[in-house]
Amino acid sequence: MYPHRTIMLKSLPVILGILGLLFGLSCYLLEKHAISNEWHYFYWSIFFIIQAIVGVAYGLLIRRLYHLVYTDSLTQLWNRKYFFEMLKQELRCPASSSGAFLFMLDDNFKRINDTYGHQAGDEALKILAAVLQDNTHPSGVAARLGGDEFALLLRNTTEESAYARADTIRKTVNSQLAVYRSTISIGIVSSTAATSGDKLLALADQALYSAKVHKDCIVFSK
What is the pTM of this model? Predict the structure, then answer.
């Protein structure tokens, strides 16, 4: 994010607060010295309009800040912080879905950076992110955990459906990354395999490691 935008976002609440205070004080003084009821209603109408604008601006600001805190700037996927919060929520309320599976996706994207440059590496990450978004149900969560490591939480699905979705993702990504001669590997674990997010992620990571040994394949955690 550009420095001047960061400064603007930090300053906006103060600016809006000062404007609201000034308009409120102005309306009070104008009302106190108003000559007729006609001006009285006019100035208070302006006051309420300004207050509405300030409220909308605050809402947009909060939405923007929420987006900045919880999304990955390069891929626009959810980030590690948001993913772990959703994973903890899933583990706290397992009965809320009929079945959930955690995918871990990775492969040697570093080779793309080394061979084709960082711009190509970033483009490859964006391609993978777009495929994940296209294959994630609204109840699911697709996230970039960091570097070239991605995760996907699928809710309300079966083991067969989870594998089929993983295979679709694998084939689609491999097809789109063919120009870079790169593939992805996927490790999958059921949300019932552990009671903590860290343990569940460790199991998915083990499955991913096994998949990467063979390259271009999918491994379920046992």
Answer: 0.71
